Amino acid sequence: MASTFDLRLQDLHSKLNNKEVSVAELVEASYKKIADTDSNIKAFLTLNEEQARKEAAELDSQLAGGAERGLLFGLPAGIKDNIVTENLLTTCASQFLSNYNPIYDATVSRKLKAAQSVTIGKLNMDEFAMGGSNENSSFYPTRNPWNTDYVPGGSSGGSAAAVAAGQVYFSLGSDTGGSIRQPASYCGVVGLKPTYGLVSRFGLVAFASSLDQIGPITKNVEDSAYVLQAIAGYDEMDSTSAKVDIPDYLSALNGDVKGLRIGVPKEYLGQGIDPQVKESVLAALKVYESLGATWEEVSLPHTEYAIATYYLLASSEASSNLARFDGVRYGVRADNPDNLIDLYRKSRSQGFGPEVKRRIMLGTYALSSGYYDAYYLKAQKVRTLIKQDFDEVFKKFDVIMGPTAPTTAFKIGEQVGDPLTMYLNDICTIPVSLAGVPAISVPCGLADNMPVGLQIIGKAFDEATVLRAAHAFEQNTEHHKLRPQL
Amino acid sequence: MSITIKDVEHVAALARLELSEEEKEQFTGQLNAILKYAEKLGELDTDNVEPTSHVQPITNVMREDVSRPSTGVEKAMRNAPDEEDGQFRVPAVLE
Fold it and tell me: Which residues of A are annotated as catalytic?
């Protein structure tokens, strides 16, 4: 039998139902793969072995009976470590939270449990999701399964690497400016950032609340639709959760892209893009042409302002959100403070890494007296212009396509110490986050043996079209079947 | 507009961060580079543009004002770095 890791989630679900494979076997296969590969990859921060084995045994005993099974019954998953899981360490890859044992489940964690998925462990990331390489994890960097000298991307680097390495059957990540899509692109897997408001943020440790979204990372588009079905939906615990009807995402995958109108922003294929990445994206557009879709070059004229806008807004929101980490109620408290203020100061200074401090400093500056209008308010206004760029293009086009990132993964250490260059890697993903619309990254080739991602961007709450377009591409290409040699 | 070590010290105090001399110098350089890059936004005329705080067209989401069980002391104290009698213990607030 082919490895269970090569099967679609739906097929695994049927195999479990037909008792061709047990939950315990799947869970053991995950832990075996982790034992064999994670000393190199370092995708995991915490393993949930005892509890996962217990749950597997319980689910297998349900298999013997005729009980109704959840959508993700018995499927082993990894969860990014900024999504809280009751009684399972949640560190955000920060020294500050290295001992944090949550007293509740995030809504998505609760939904995975309700769908009867088994949580294998918690996945490495850039500290508090700030970074694009996983080098900002305060424990250890994750390595790219395609070549361990290279970064897996970030901030959901562990979530992407674990799926690429076949350690879990799917994972959850979070995306603020590209943190699901960019690592998915670098690791050759499928990463979906849903529309802002589609998936509840309750229990996602807040980085930039107006941008943060949770989404699935999977091996193929069908699995992405399958997992999205389980986690999407209104939640009264999230004040920006959207009251929208959730369609049947799987039934949208009909392979039909005839007449689909694709806009291709010239700004995403311009300066700074690797020629091989561009070539892969143009080849993907040819595939769409052959399937009856049409594409045209379009413009998102405010793209060049997106990175500055994003870093001002996201850092401002982060400086406010991270004020809660004061060493009083949870987290690691510094020893021997002089007084209460000194306790805050020492705990934060010892607990946060350099990138987190840098963004808190930038955000605090941008929000401070005298600078608010010049930086924060200005950025909020430019955000409106960026969103209008997308509204304009979507009047004439069904989807927008381009690369997920301008290059493939870079080498570990290559961009450390140069935050601005690191930020520029996000040029194709950040505008989408600012506009709040959904986007998926799917594998579309290799450049020097490292994966390239095609980004497909849709209208707000039109995940169905994004998934349909991505699936049609996948059905007619072999890129998603390529696996790294571990 | 360029920021100095003094500005960095002021912002660090606001953010409740204690920075080493090395960090202060590093952040002064890096924040200047980032803010210089951000000056780009000044090229755009935004006088008649409404700000976007988030993209959802919703404001002031309320729930019914009905009581429901709270977390409970034992759970709430589980991660406390220091506690006494079910309360978080901190250094004296008033000297």
Answer: 80, 155, 179
Instruction: List the structure tokens of A105.
Output: 């489940």
Nearest residue of chain B to residue A356 (CA atoms): B17
* Cα–Cα separations (whole angstroms), residue A130 to A175, A275, B21: 10, 28, 23
**Testing the interface with A: which of B28, B40, B54 to mutate, by most A Cβ within 10 A?**
B54
pLDDT digits (tens, 9 = 90+) for A21-58: 999 999 999 999 999 999 999 999 999 999 999 999 99
B83 touches chain A (CB under 8 A): no
**What are the beta bridge partners of residue A173?**
A215
From residue A33, give the alpha-carbon distance in Å to each of A29, A155, A212, A226, A244: 6, 23, 31, 23, 39
CB contact under 8 A, B31 and A436: no
Whether A266 and A298 have beta carbons less than 8 Å apart is answered as yes
DSSP A468: H
For chain B, the distance separating the N- and C-terminal CA atoms, rounded to the nearest angstrom, is: 40
Say whether the ipTM exceeds 0.85: yes
**Is residue A341 within a helix (H) or strand (E), and if so which, with residue range?**
helix A340-351
pLDDT band at A64 (very low <50, low <70, confident <90, very high): confident
Report the C-alpha gap between A9 and A71 in whole angstroms.
Answer: 10
- Short-list A162, A123, A122, A121, CA closest to A144: A162
Option in A341, A361, A382 nearest B41 (CB): A382
